[in-house]
Amino acid sequence: MTEQEERSLRQQKAEVTKILTETWTNEFMKRGTVATILKVDGRILEYIDSIVNHPDDHCLREQQKIWRFFKICQKPGVGFDAARVKRNLEFIEGLKFKQGKGYEGIHLSQFQVFDLTNLYGWVVKADDGEIVRLYTRLVDMIPRKVGKSTLAAAIAVTEVVVDGPYDAEVYCASNTYKQARIAFDMIKSAIKSLSDNDCRRIRTKVNREKIWVDVFEKVHGKWVQTHESTLECVTNPEALDGPNPSLFIVDELAAAKSTAGKSGYDMRNVLRSGQVLRRSPLEIDITTAGNVIDGSFHTEVQESFRPILAGQKENDRLFLSLFEPDVGDDEGDPHTWAKVNPHYHMLAVVRDFYQSQWDDAQGSSEQMHEFRVKQLNLFVIDDSARWIRADAVKDHLLAFTIEKEDFERPPQCALSFDLSVIDDD
Fold first, then answer.
1. In sequence order, which residues have a C-beta less than 8 Å from that of residue 26 and are 6 or more positions away?
2. Which of 20, 39, 53, 265 lies 20 to 30 Å (CA to CA) from residue 208?
């Protein structure tokens, strides 16, 4: 990072801190939409208060997320569905997920409640007058030990039981089958734990990679089918047969390499294009940073996500929740760890995990790389595992054409690179 880039980030931090403090007043909180949102759940107010009043305890990207929220609250033509948010939050916190030999529920933290409130609450009117969701993509880039996969699974189950369309289709995707199954197996356990009640009956069929869900609800004393949905685990874009996802989840998208036909981004693009006929589609990307700096996700982070959070670009269909250290933060300081992991102060096991990982990393460059990527959520190249970095090649590229004038003063040295990752003879 250059000195100019560091100065820019410090300036952004100072500016957003000032804006949040000046905006978050009693008068602002009493405004119609804002007041309605704050009444949905007390954790929303607690979360915003913490970020506004303790800026040094929160990273720049988290502050900018709140700034975007303030702007959406004042944007004409955007509505808020409080009843939908309350229903979905209550449903999610009633879900049970298999843990060891039993099942445990999920208690949403402040930042999770805030993100879900934005995801489910904001709506706009389509050209034909239909009310549709504002955010059609959520990007959650956050370190390990924050429950990313559990939250994604909860959103998936909510889609097929209470929130999605009648014919909801949900896909769990990733770069590897093993990774894709993490969220899918959580979904499967939550679905199996659902039980009938006086208002809802659920019928399921489950196999290794697909779940069929039929939901019946009592309407005016009669049982009416409200959902006929499917959930599927996928990793091969070529194996998909005309997907029409109302929701899809991509796990660890940052690890997707730019390899045609073999990338998580290929899967993501196929599923995204399949949503073209959905009126209110949703994409969930959950990931930790990685070492693939020449991949599509890292490009999006640099050229789209960060500029959007900084107010340099606009995309009101994209909800961003990014956590990363601020410029100058000490990577070995627990204060920095708490900045990038919103559950750090909530759970002793998380604090112990960070300390043990940091201690182990002191004697190993490989483990230090792992700590910086997975615990600090940084994009870092593992120099010990590479002959030459892609960015080093790009920095030294010069234009050269095979013309007569080029040979009058030829370059002293020329190198060529084989960039293939598979045998392509």
1. none
2. 265
Q: DSSP per residue over 174-233, as a string?
A: ESSHHHHHHHHHHHHHHHHH----SSEEEEEEE-SSEEEEEEEEEETTEEEEEEEEEEEE
- Sign for the CA dihedral angle at 33, 36, 40, 43 comes to positive
Residue 237: band (very low, low, confident or very high) from pLDDT cuts 50, 70, 90:
confident
Total number of residues shown for the chain: 425
CB 95 within 8 A of CB 106: yes
Are 234 and 267 a contacting pair, CB within 8 Å? yes
Q: Cβ distance 173 to 103 under 8 Å? A: no
Q: Which residues pair with 211 in a beta bridge?
A: 206, 231
Q: What is the DSSP string of 345-368?
A: TT-HHHHHHHHHHHHHHTT-HHHH
Structure-token pair, residue 23: 């905006």
Token digits of residue 7: 């100065």
The pLDDT of residue 238 is above 50? yes
- Helix 110-121 vs helix 60-73: crossing angle, to nearest 10: 40
Distances (CA, A) of 376 to 2, 47, 208, 244, 409: 20, 21, 34, 36, 48
DSSP 130-190: -EEES--EEEEE--SSS-HHHHHHHHHHHIIIIIS-TT-EEEEEESSHHHHHHHHHHHHHH
Strand, coil or helix: what is 104?
A: strand
Task: For 47-84, write each residue's pLDDT tens digit.
Answer: 999 999 999 999 999 999 999 999 999 999 999 999 99
How many Cβ atoms are within 10 Å of 132's Cβ, its own excluded?
14
Model pTM?
A: 0.88
Q: Which of 110, 198, 194 is nearest to 154 (CA)?
A: 194
pLDDT over threshold 70, residue 409: no
In this prediction, residue 353 carries a pLDDT of 95
Instruction: Tell me the per-residue pLDDT of 146-173, one tens digit each, with 9 for 90 and over.
Output: 989 899 999 999 999 999 999 999 999 9
Helices marked H in 24-146 — which ranges?
Answer: 26-29, 32-40, 42-53, 60-73, 82-92, 110-121
